[in-house]
C-alpha cells in the first residue's frame, strides 16, 4: 500500500492518531448532539452545525483544489448531501433529544446492514456472503433484545418511536453513500463542503416547518455553545479529515473497525458524562449488536478479497 509520503506503510503515529480521532470523536458526537439539542431544536442544531462546517470547508477547498464543479457534479453533491446530512444526520439529532445517546449509537451501528441490503437490491445485485448475513441476523437480534416492545419487565424512561426515525435516517445515509460511487462528483474537499451546505439547507428548512423555535438560539448556555463548536470543528472537520486519510492510507479492514468502536465509546461517554442509565441488559444487548457488526464487516471484507482473487 502506497502512502502520501511514498513509503510502503502508512506513518504509524499518524495512523494511530487518525484512528483515535475517528474512534473517540465520532463516538462522542452522539453525546455532543444530545447536549446541543437540550436547548436548541435538533433540526436547527444540525443545520447550523453543517452551515458553518461546510462554509469553512468550502473555503479550504477553493484554496487547495481551485476547481469549481460542473453542473452535474454540483447537483450530485447536493443530492448526496441532502440524503446524508439533511436526512441522515438530522434523524440522529432528533433521536438523541428523546433517547439516550448511547442507545441511538447502537441503532446507527447497524448501518452496514443497510449498506449491504441496498447494494444487493439496487446496485451490485450480488448476494452477501453467509458470514455477512449471519452478522446482520445477530445484529438485529441484539437490537430486538435491547428494545423488545413486548417485554413486560423492561422499564424505560424514553419513547421507542425515535427508533423508526433513526432507521429511516440510516437508510438515507446508506443510499446516499452508495450513490457517491456512481454519480459524477466534484473534487473531494469541495464535494464534502457542498454536501454539508446542501444538508444544512434541508435541515434548516425542516426546522422552519416543524420546529419554529429559532429564538431558542438566544437562550443557549455556555455548555450548549461548547457542544455546538465541538460538533463543528472536531466532529465535522477533524473527524472527516482523519477518516479521509485512513480511507486512502490504511487497510480497509482496519478503517472499518470504527463501525463497532463508535457505539462502545458512545455508550461509555453517555454513562460517564451524560449520566445515562447503563443496565446489564443494555450491556449484553450492545455486545450482541457489536458482534453482529464485526461479522458483517468481516464478511464484507472476505467478499471483497474473493472478488479480487
TrEMBL record:
Topology in the membrane? Multi-pass membrane protein
The keyword S-adenosyl-L-methionine belongs to this UniProt entry's keyword annotation: no
Report TM segments: 12-31, 43-62, 74-96, 102-122, 129-147, 159-180, 192-210, 225-246, 258-274, 280-299
Q: Where in the cell is it found?
A: Membrane
Q: Which InterPro entries match?
A: AA-Vitamin_Transporters (IPR050638), EamA_dom (IPR000620), EmrE-like (IPR037185)
Q: Which keywords has UniProt assigned to this entry?
A: Membrane, Transmembrane, Transmembrane helix
Give the EamA domain ranges: 22-147, 161-297
Pfam families recorded: EamA
The UniProt family comment states: Belongs to the EamA transporter family.
PANTHER family, per database record: EAMA DOMAIN-CONTAINING PROTEIN, INNER MEMBRANE TRANSPORTER
Instruction: Write the protein's name.
Output: EamA family transporter
